[in-house]
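Exercise (ungraded).
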Amino acid sequence: MSLAELICPAGTPAALRTAVDAGADAVYCGFQDATNARNFPGLNFTPDELADAVVYAHAKGTKVLLALNTYPPAGKVDLWRQAADTGARLGVDAFIVADMGVADYIAQTHPQVRLHLSVQAAASSPEAIRYYCERFGVKRVVLPRILTIPEIKQVRKDIPCEIETFIFGNHGLMVEGRCSLTNYLTGQSTNMDGVCSPASDVEYKRDADGTMSSQLAGFTIDCFGPDEKAGYPTICKGRYTAPHRPDAYYAFEEPVSLNLSRLLPELIDAGVHAFKIEGRQRSKSYVRGVVTAFRHAVDDIRAGRPADMANLVALTEGQKQTQGAFETKKWR
Amino acid sequence: MTAFSRLSCVMIQPLLTRVVRRIAARHPSLFARLGPHQATDFLIDPIELPFALHLRPDPDALVFRAVPRDAAPEPGALIRGKFMLLLELMDAEEDGDAAFFSRDLEISGDTEAVVRLRNALDDVDGSIADETAAMFGAPGRAILARLRRNYPTQETGAFAP
């Protein structure tokens, strides 16, 4: 049986302590800059805060993984290299990377620190994953959310590293690490600036009848009726009209969250080494609730007991959940 | 502006001033996460109360005052919801995204300002509500307990105690 480590989000130092106290095996976090894919206002860690966080986590036996999972613009690598140097100095347990140049720098400069391949690298085939393992010494791959469990089981047999899969949270997969929708409207890059739908470009407008529209850079991307559940203001989750679809429809994806709580035993059986919970942008309340629920579930499964995973739907986007491609390739 | 609303604002203002100064002194790291939005005027609107709250989190000139709704300043950002939801969001006992998804929480204006305020408050350890109540001793704690009893916990709080 795999170890089934629980990898938990930490957007702030307080959230990190909450995750650690709730039973995280590892927490992942980032600096307050473009080196990570949750470069949101008011979120993330200063170097001093990360230093304290590493001490706190390690004292309780929890690992700290530093997300450096964005792509430096050509020729502008210093920020990523400095972040790697700082993380290594502070004693993080692994770097989560997507860019080959960042991976190569860390492999050359900080070979004592583990490299995990971010979902943002979109490496889903054994050939691609083996390349990162052989060239940069990657020890773990975070798989894109496009594979079924039988496919994951087969990949596991064909690669020399551990597998981490998302089990809960935002399900905006597109082609991970390749999405440029935000760039088209805002000029900022999800993959290089680390921000999808920057808050400074988001506006919500409410009409007298209770209808709410969400806008990004002045473009309306969805409109919710007075009693309708809402979702994140991302282009991929918006509803649009088209000549062949005069009624607004979800052209890309739907506002729905991944929830694999029912599939945990099968994922463990498939050889998945670590389970990732999405949500560094979410609150301590979310971290406490989701980490606690999955901690109990994983412990129950490993002890041969049935797992109780009720009540997670309240924390899902649009209050809707899916098992996505893990269950079937026809989830839409 | 109703007389009741105006009277409520006058009565509660000394408490608000004391509370916000205490919180600012105990949690100075709040302000760093607010960044440029220390100068933003937030209007926090608990829909059941007879007044709204005007917050400008400038560490050098803190403003936190009760205002009748029809006399409130034009806000940079508006946050509206039931009183207990807002209280629990402040204490990170509720998840803001979940409250937004369920439409229990309404925001408008400068979204970045709201996100920064949310993240700044979320990084505070412990309960600001409990700290505030403790400032007023046993009566304060009793009032908070009564508020929590009288105002229902939101349905979004799947993990609320």
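Further reading is listed at the end of the chapter. For now, observe: Chain A has two domains: 5-171+256-327, 193-250. Chain A has a mean pLDDT of 92.
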